[in-house]
């Protein structure tokens, strides 16, 4: 009887490949890719020993390690597992529903969003000219409540003058992130997770790594103004875009804040 592969087997293989690839991407962004490769190598060795070569003694030892290892993996990768499942409902799979919802938004609501975008862009342009460091986070589908609680509550309207004043060097709230949620300046001086991605250029400082860190953990949009160069950058969907023009920033903000 020959070896046969059906359509169900092909679909099974494709789904496993996608799962492994997404897991690899998630752990690569968090700096734990070497652990993933080590676990993957162990699983292959366990499969060969237990099911191909059928070594009973060594296979029994590997079986015990695997049975305990499942619990250990949940403990080790609890942050990554939480991030993985939280992204399932917030990725572009639901983009159609966002577009349908946006069609029913009133003109006054859209005008308010446009005004907020203009205020943020003006603030970033002015801070870029004076080389004032800034880190602004725009909340999307995933709540940023846990990060807001690490800073000072504001609940203020979005104003370029207020944003610039928050990040002025002599103010007590300038060190940290400003979080914008539901069209309001919700909190300032917030502490964010720092990206452990080894591929981030070393010339990028803590603000850029924090922006990338929140973009890896959530679906938020992070805007950075560099204190050293005055360049405007933004991070979203685990990627960072350095040195963008105000026009590009305005376009991205309009898209993201309309969906929020």
From TrEMBL:
Pfam families in the record: CdaA_N, DAC
Gene3D superfamilies assigned: DNA integrity scanning protein, DisA, N-terminal domain
InterPro entries tied to this protein: C-di-AMP_synthase, CdaA, CdaA_N, DisA, DNA_integrity_DisA_N_sf, DNA_integrity_scan_DisA_N
Keywords for the protein's UniProt record, in alphabetical order: ATP-binding, Cell membrane, Membrane, Nucleotide-binding, Nucleotidyltransferase, Transferase, Transmembrane, Transmembrane helix
Assigned EC number: 2.7.7.85
Subunit structure and binding partners: Probably a homodimer.
Name of the molecule in the record: Diadenylate cyclase
Organism for this UniProt entry: Candidatus Gallipaludibacter merdavium
Gene expressing this chain: dacA
């Amino acid at each position: 009887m020959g070896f046969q592969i059906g359509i169900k087997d092909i679909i099974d293989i494709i789904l496993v490949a996608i799962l492994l690839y997404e897991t690899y991407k998630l752990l690569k962004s968090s700096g734990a890719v070497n652990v993933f490769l080590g676990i993957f190598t162990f699983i292959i060795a366990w499969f060969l020993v237990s099911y191909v070569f059928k070594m009973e003694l060594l296979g029994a030892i590997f079986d015990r390690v695997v049975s305990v290892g499942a619990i250990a993996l949940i403990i080790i990768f609890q942050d990554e597992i939480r991030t993985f499942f939280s992204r399932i409902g917030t990725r572009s799979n639901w983009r159609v529903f966002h577009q349908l919802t946006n069609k029913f938004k009133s003109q006054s609501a859209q005008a308010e969003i446009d005004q907020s975008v203009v205020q943020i862009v003006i603030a970033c342009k002015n801070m870029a000219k004076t080389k004032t460091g800034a880190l602004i986070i725009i909340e999307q589908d995933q709540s940023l409540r846990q990060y807001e609680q690490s800073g000072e509550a504001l609940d203020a309207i979005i104003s370029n003058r207020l944003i610039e004043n928050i990040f002025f060097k002599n103010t007590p709230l300038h060190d940290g992130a400003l979080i914008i949620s539901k069209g309001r300046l919700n909190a300032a001086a917030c502490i964010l997770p720092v990206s452990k991605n080894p591929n981030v250029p070393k010339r990028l400082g803590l603000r850029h790594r924090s922006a990338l860190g929140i973009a890896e953990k959530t679906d938020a949009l992070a805007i950075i103004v560099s204190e050293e160069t005055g360049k405007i950058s933004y991070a979203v969907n685990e990627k960072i875009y350095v040195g963008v023009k105000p026009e590009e920033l305005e376009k991205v903000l309009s898209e993201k804040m309309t969906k929020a």
